[in-house]
Design a protein that fits this description.
Keywords: Coiled coil, Golgi apparatus, Membrane, Protein transport, Transmembrane, Transmembrane helix, Transport. The chain is mainly α. Helix 1 runs antiparallel to helix 2, helix 2 runs antiparallel to helix 3 and helix 3 packs antiparallel against helix 4.
Length: 197
Amino acid sequence: MSSDFEGYEQDFAVLTAEITGRIGKVPKLLGDEKKQMVANVEKQLEEARELLEQMELEVREIPAQSRGMYSSRMRSYKQEMGKIEADFKRSRIAYSDEVRNELLGDDGNSSENQLIKLREERAHLLDNTERLERSSRRLEAGYQIAVETEQIGQEMLENLSQDREKIQRSRERVSLTIKNCWCRVSCALGKFTVQAE
């Protein structure tokens, strides 16, 4: 069951990396090339949503004691998906600005230079934002793993503590049983020696 989930996870990671790369290119493209890129990203976003749905179905099938770890991973994937969709919307706004300028016929040379400069600055900002968000996602994933590891460690300590208590109780019972046996043997030997005399 979890192997299916992990397969979906790998597919999701590859797909989101491709989407992120394409989103970064959208503001730098023009005309039909840009329209095609936007259509491709929309298609891949739909595939990523379907993968998330499959992963969620897999999590529901996992036994309750193991489900917590997978649920927290799902939350982080959903957050990642939300950030990717927000990045895509921002890149489409850049696309919309360009279309608006084309429709308004703003062909002045200085305006075109300014537009190019603005596009470059926007692309640079989007790249930096993307890097920051990737770093944040990695930190978040690392934190989730640390929390899960701590939970597992605490559960193991609790189990060990319970096992220790059981062993101590068993040892005490065995010790009492041995003492009782010695007492009975001593009493029996005492009676036997009295009778022999």
